Amino acid sequence: MDDTKNTSARRDMLISRVIDGEASEQDWADLRVMAEADPSVWTDLTDIQRQHRALSEIVQNAGVLADGVEIPEGELLTPGERFERRMSFVRAWGGWAAAAAILLVWFTGVPVSEKSFMQQGQQAGIVQTGTDPSPESILDRYLDVGRQNGRVLGEMPRRIVLDTKPVPGGLEVTYLRQIVEREIVPRDRLYRMGRDEFGKAALIPDPDPLQVKVSY
Amino acid sequence: MDERTTAEAGSENPGLSVVKPPSAGAIGADEIRRIWCENRRWIAAILLAYKPREADVEDLLQVVAVAVVRKIGELRDPAALRPWLRTVAINAARASGRDVSRTRKHLRLVREQAPREPQEYSCDGLAECGDEARRLMDLARTLPEGYREPLLLQCVRGMSYRQIGAVLDLPETTIETRIARGRRMLRELALRETAATPTGITQQTGA
Predict the structure, then answer these.
(1) Which one of A37, A59, B51, B195 is at 20 to 30 Å from B163 when CA atoms are compared?
(2) CB contact under 8 A, B152 and A59
(3) How many angstroms separate the CA atoms of A16 and B176, rounded?
């Protein structure tokens, strides 16, 4: 019984060495002797080699993905550099905020003040939200209408925190809310991630996808 | 594993070498970038060994990259770099497993409200791989950890038994034995599965 076990273990070891390119002359000689007594050694070798190749395909694809993942530069910044970057972000968004205000004026025809925003919106026929002008009530209405017409399936329970900073009276939290929606996408708008002729990641039209990437 | 052993292990393949392990507490940005570039390929293999099927390898690699930057200063023994990187990767993969379970539970609730049953697909960022490869990977994930890890690390191009031993903190001979046994176990699993499905083709079912 022990002999059989040992022979089987030795056979596995020799096959493994051959597959990994680690077999010595002696290993090859031993394997040939085994195969003379039991030719199924060669079937084992080819089957296991095929399996190794298939697994290597996946592992090496993961390796290619890994080559594309860099250390996030923001994480490598010193506190001073990080502060400067945040400030430039705020400056950039300051510009966008101004642009957004101009857009609202164009839509509503009058300058927007924080207090009268909803009233003006209703007059212009942009939003109909009842009497409560809070963002929560507007979002609730969107969820309700979305559920009714089948577009919104629900909201994920977790909110992802992007940033926090202490402010007088508490902590300012910037977070992400995730709403699950469903939409019918025309086939000419379906793409998949692939690689172009230079091996770079690129979007490729894919009107008939076999697999759909789910990221949850 | 002392520093000499680490350098030796790396010297077999420049692409996988850890030329000089970092000294704790004083690691510059360039050093961290270098460590990441030299180790990320086998880290991806560790993630494959531990992640749930639905989790995306690329997303997990990003999580590991951030964790490496934030925590590498806590590494007290520079010679333990590779086992430490492995632990960071395993933790990231397991955490994503917990997230997937929670999300699945909630999505079931959401889907109960949906008028049609959505079709589920498996995707781990490796959709371009063949069916046979994906089937084998699913089977490999069912192997005990001690066999699964060396088996997948062996598939990283150019990684020797000695380098795998340096990652898993195990002797070279143990690695060799486990790879050989792991392959045998995988083959038996594949044969059993093929015998159970007459066509030899397994249906892809969402978890």
Answers:
(1) B51
(2) yes
(3) 8
Record the pTM: 0.58
Domain-embedded: residue A185: yes
Instruction: Give me the domain span that covers residue A28.
Output: 2-67
Model-level ipTM above the cut of 0.85: no
pLDDT surpassing 60 at residue B28: yes
Contact B138, B186 (CB under 8 A): no
With a CB-CB cutoff of 8 Å, which residues 103-132 of chain B face chain A?
103-104, 106-107, 109-111, 113-115, 119-123, 125-130, 132
A185: which DSSP letter?
A: P
Nearest partner of B122 among B145, B109, B141, B106, judged by Cα: B141
CB-CB neighbors (< 8 A) of B151 in chain A = 55
- Whether B58 maps to a domain, the answer reads yes
CB of B53 within 8 Å of any CB in chain A?
no
DSSP A72-94: -GGGGS-HHHHHHHHHHHHHHHH
